[in-house]
Amino acid sequence: MPYTTHRPTARVLDIMQLLSTSKEGCSLTEIATAISVPKSTIVPIIRTLCERRFITQHGSNKYTVGISALIVGSACLQDMDILELFKAQMKRIVNATSEACQLGVLVGGDVLYLAKEESPEPIRLISFVGKRLPAYSTAIGKALLSEYTLQGLQTLYPQGLAPVTERTCTDFNRFYDECQQGKTLGYFTDKEEISPGINCFSVPLAYHGHYIAAMSVSIPSFRLTEEKKEKTIDALKTSKEKLEHTFTELNINDIDFFAKSFQSQPI
């Protein structure tokens, strides 16, 4: 008996693939038009996906990919050798600094956190894998956005840079200059711009001339000293060098999947 595509399943996958490539999300009408299916046909599918948290509906009636999709997708990432390479270096950084280390990639205008190694300190940063934050307010985001032109940044954030805390940079020109300064220094900082009392230092990770991810260390202000800052930056730069050398030496093919799956191309 010849194989035929199961249409209901295909529609679910079409919806998920469509939303995964849409930065702003899609309305019900836009989804129906894009996959050429009547709205009445996909309404039950949309409702079920929402109930199971594979997609999320926002106040603008736009649908975006939900947390359940990330959880399922992360099962694939857990088996990727490349992610294990990252985690090994992240553990080394935590051992050197006693502070939390995170790995993030750029998804649209947000940073998506893919991995985290906890700090042994009793008072620590509360964050989790799968969290998305405005990239311009984070050290990881600044590292990844440093490849963008000023015009590219303005295109990526057409509504402007909304403040997350009172220290968030909301001026495009100043933000662009800060990113360029970070490239010169070799590291990027977030000084209580995403969370009061938390400072972050980050380095980007390059492969084939593009930043595919970035690692950061988060330090509460009351534990941040000049000595700890220098130790943290040194640990990050050392791990960056080791990882980038490994990428080149082993000619890892999986990293292409890693980059194409998550990184937004600079404008």
From TrEMBL:
Where the record annotates domain IclR-ED, the positions are 68-249
Any idea where the HTH iclR-type domain is?
A: 6-67
The answer on whether this UniProt entry bears the keyword Isomerase reads no
Q: Look up the coiled coil feature and give its residue ranges.
A: 226-253
In terms of InterPro entries, this protein maps to: GAF-like_dom_sf, HTH_MetabolicPath_Reg, Tscrpt_reg_IclR_C, Tscrpt_reg_IclR_N, WH-like_DNA-bd_sf, WH_DNA-bd_sf
Q: What is this protein called?
A: IclR family transcriptional regulator
Q: Which PANTHER family match?
A: HELIX-TURN-HELIX TRANSCRIPTIONAL REGULATOR, ICLR FAMILY (PTHR30136), HTH-TYPE TRANSCRIPTIONAL REPRESSOR ALLR (PTHR30136:SF24)
Q: Which UniProt keywords apply?
A: Coiled coil, DNA-binding, Transcription, Transcription regulation
**A Pfam family annotated for this UniProt entry:** HTH_IclR
